[in-house]
Structures are given as C-alpha cells and as structure tokens.
Amino acid sequence: MRLSRFYVPTLKEDPAEAEVVSHRLLVRAGMIRKLTSGIYTFLPLGLRTLNKVAAIVRREMDRAGAQEIFMPSVQPADLWRETGRWDIYGKELLRFKDRHGRDYCLGPTHEEVVTDLVRGEVRSYRQLPVNLYQIQTKFRDEIRPRFGLMRGREFVMKDGYSFDRDEAGAEKSYRDMFEAYVRAFSRIGLGFRAVEADSGPIGGSFSHEFMVLAETGEDTIAVCENGSCGYAANLEKAEVVLPGETPGAPMVPEQAPKPEIVDTPGRHSVDEVCGFLGLDPRDLVKTLIFEADGLPVAALVRGDRELNEVKLRNLLGATDLALADEALVRSLTNAPVGFAGPVGLSGARIVADSELLLSGPVVCGANRADAHLKNVLLGRDAEIERFADLRTVTPQDPCPRCGRGLSFTRGIEVGHVFKLGRKYSEAMNASFLDEDGRERPMVMGCYGIGVSRIVAAAIEQNNDEHGPLFPPSIAAFEVALIGLAGKDRAVADKAEELYRVLSEAGVEVLFDDRDERPGVKFNDADLMGLPMQLILGAKGLAKGLVEAKDRRSGERVDLSLDDFVADFAAWRARVWESWGLESG
RNA sequence: CGGGAUGUGGCUCAGUCUGGUAGAGCGCUGCGUUCGGGACGCAGAGACCGCGCGUUCAAAUCGCGCCAUCCCGACCA
Length: 584
Prior knowledge:
Largest sheet: 9 strands, mixed
Mean pLDDT: 92
Shape: globular
CATH class of the largest domain: Alpha Beta
Helix content: 25-40%
Strand content: 25-35%
CATH superfamily of the largest domain: Bira Bifunctional Protein, Domain 2
Number of domains: 3
Structural class: alpha+beta
Distance between the termini: 19 Å
Number of helices: 16
Number of strands: 31
Radius of gyration: 29 Å
CATH topology of the largest domain: BirA Bifunctional Protein, domain 2
C-alpha cells in the first residue's frame, strides 16, 4: 500500500477526549474515530489490525473443531423472556420496538439465539457435541463507556457456544476451548495469563478469564509467587485461606467483660473511630448494610479489610446486590450511616467474614447515633447466621493452593470461558434423546473473546513515547518502507523497486512515497507502530545499503541492497523471533 | 443515576470574570526556498462561538431551559 493513497489521518496533538494511552494512540495514529459516546469507526489502518486479530482467533477456533456461524444482532424479546433475562438483564440491554410495537433488543450476547437455533435441529445424542461461534458486533449500553475501545458500547466479540450430552462432554469442550484460547493469545503475541474468575451474571459454575497483562488494566489479579503452583485468580474470585486451624465458632472466654457503650460523636468511618478511641482497625468490626434482592443484609468484616461484593452475592445467592441507602440504614439501625453493628440488630440477615472467628473482643457500631460498643464477643453478643470467606485477598495473604505468597498484577480481560451447565437449555427446552430414549437437556458452555478490546490491550501493553508497538502478528502492515528521495530520482526509483520486490514476496508493506520531509515520515511511521521500518536514503544508496530499524528495540542494522531479499528475510525472522512468534 | 467539568474554523486551545468589529498554534490551498527525526518565507481559504428562549441599544461573554462530550463514583463480558 502506498501511504500517499492510504486513508490514515494521523494527528500531531493528543485528542482532548482520550484519557488512556491506547485511546490516545488509536485516534492519533488514524486507526479509529469516534462517532458518538462509546461507538467508533475503524479506519483502514485500525481495521487491518482488527481483522488480523479476528483471523487468528478464527483459525484457532476452527482448528479446535468449532464452526463459524453469523447470527443476527437484532433479537426478539420473546427469546429473552423465555430465560427470564428480559426482566433481569437491566438497562445494559438496549431495547426498542419495531413498527408493529413488538419488543426487540440489540444483542449483548447470544445464548438465547444460539440455544434457539440448536434446539430446533438437534434431537439426538448422535448429533452432539456441537460447537458454534461467531465474530460479530455486540452492543451493551454501558452506564459509562470510557477508554475508547477498552470499554465501548459497541464492540467486536468472538462468542462461541458448546452443546454436549453430559458433564464429561462439556468438560472436554471447555478444555478444548481453553487450549484454543491459549494458542490464539500466544499467536497474537501479547503477554497474557489465564486466571480463575467469577462467572458473573451470565451464570454457570466455573470459569476462567484471559488477561492481557498491563499496568493500566482495570482488573487486579492475584498470582502465586511459586511458579510451579500456577494459581492465579481475579481479585473478585481469589480465595482467602486463614492460616492454621480455624475454629468452627467464635471463641467465648468465660468472665469476659460485657459490651459497653462508648460515645463516638460524629465518628463514622473506621479511621475516625479508631483515631478517636485509640484503636487498631483490626480490633474494629465494620458492619455494612446491603440490600440483596430487596432484603436487608448485614455483612461484617474486620475494620482493616475490604468486603468483596462478589463473594457476598454468591454466598447469598442474590442477583441484585447494592449497598443500602441511608433511609434503609436508618430504619434498621435507628442511626445515621456509620453506627451499624451486629448486636441487637433485627430485621436483617447477618453474615460475617471467616476471619472474625479468630477475633477476641471487638468494637462495633451500637445501632445508635454517635455511639459504638466495646468488649463485643461476636459468639456471645450477636446472632450471626454464617461465617464465610467474604473479604478481598491482600498481598499479605497466602496462596490458597500452596500456602506461599501472592503477588498482585493488573490485567485487561480479553477472553472469558464459562461452563453454563443446563441453565439455558432447561429454560429454553433444548433437549435431545439419549441412547435409552430419555429426553435430556444439553450441557452448555460459552466462550468469549473481546476482539476489538485486544487491539486496545495490545497498545496498553506495548507502547513508547512515539506510539504503539504492535507485534508483527497483528500489525496493520509488517513493514513501513520509507523512501527519503526528495528530488533524488535514484533514491525514488530504488524505493519503488524495494516496494515492488517486497510486495511480490508477499510481505505486507506500507510504502511512504509522500513528498514529505524525513521527520514527518519517521514520526508517522513510529506513530503507526509497524514493527519493522526500512529506510532508504541517498547516503545508504550510495553505499548499496538500506537501513532496517526494529521499531520496538530501536535497533538499526544495514541490509545489503545487492542481497536484499535474503538479508531482509533473515532480519524479518529475527524480529518475529524477538516477539516470541513464528513468522508466517 | 449522584458529583465535577467542558462545548469557539478539521485538531489543540485563548477570549467569557468586567457585554462593544471573533483570535493563536497546528492542519489545509498557492508560490518560492528547504529535505535523515514533526522546516521557513509570502499570499490565501475556512466559524449559524452546541441548540433554544430571554435580558440589553448591543450577547461567544449575562440569565433560564435543553442537548452533547469528558472525568470521578455506583455498575460491568
């Protein structure tokens, strides 16, 4: 491709709206343009990278035995009513009516559609397993889209669905997809990690997320420091294991002093109360009031800990969980927010973090304005329904598998595999006849890859002050050929020749044949992030050399023009290798 | 949805407080010089100042309403 004819509007200045590096560079490099909040057009340069990511994903899905289909993005409400999700999915589901007044939505995911498809055709165990996928535009009406392609409302996703006759089959499908994902992300060339994850509102029993590792990632993941253990989990999911033997019930020493009210005027927060009473936050119990599916719940954690809402939601089996508003807190505790405690609290279920089984006398809210209670023994003074793992792990906690240390890193979720079980097949009656002639629901799995998000994640992980650094596997072009001709006919002719030779050799090359000053060409080439640059100038030509620059390392070598084809091939192989990739 | 901010040539912004002929840099067009890391000179084109209503002799500027975008939070494959 000749740059003089390629539609790549690069920008010298940062767009005002872009906050994160990937957003900024995608816009500046002329890869995307915003149409409206959270919705972007892919320009030619950006689309080439998007398509390369999609092609790798497609190849690995096909290789793993999945078959590509293409489902509609507009879906009828009736299907969503069958699974009940029409009512529970919330405002993220963009709904609208057609001219007849019938309800539709724009598909945020396709469990209903694919299950409907399969139930119509598959009748016998002999037809199973089935594994179907598509690469398609999804729409989720995010509350607050942000970060460009990282969290858009409209985005490109590969979503796949497996249907098996039994758990064992579903297990195999899951493993096959897991392995296909590992291969796909390896070939894309980004540093990634598979972690255990919460399965979220899509439901199901077990899941892994694939995270591209990047400082700027929105998710925190806990990784075991012991390389051979291999434990890694999303912070939402990572388990807390208490050291040593944990008692089954809180200890209640005899003759311990009774609870006593202490005045804490205007002290709401843990810090304020501890500062005022001269306490360590570890000796305080935080009581957080939630509303779970409309019912009040009090959750207790140690003062210095973070409650993990995902864990709480799972423990309660709730679909809707949110911190209670002030009115509910007031009606339950007879006090403003900040003075809730488990002692004498009625009208709410009370659950506590397991760690509190180990605690001695603690301080907690007194359910009275401006007052706390001290000398509280949870086993004696409170009615706690259940102790469970409710808090978020910290880097000080041990690995739940091997007991060694954990370290935290950040990542961007680019893939997610779930076991769905029979949730959708039962709700939608997707069943088959087994060998014994019995009708049984299919066992499903669901597998997503955020294709457009990978483009952003690649930049978040790999960039420098001049622009993105794309791995050659997904770069829009492998090579930027820069001809520094000016009025020098010989240089211009030679550059043309190199362009022709490379193109004929099947190398994707973007040839900067513009009448621009060298600095402009260098800066644009860097900004587009193509992994290899070939720079031909008058001095080099005189010596029979063309300069080859590795965009990422900045390393420059001279290639012989006489032996260009072989020299280039060897250099190209080295660049691919430096990314840990095999050149195609 | 709560809190904060911003809307002025294609882009980045000044001008708004204190009402009085709409500005700069980049980009764009033409001519000339220049040509290995975002050149320079000269000449140009380009603006319903987000939209509406109001106040005023006069509104980019003041008031009210609306819309859009961004940031923080809640939420989230």
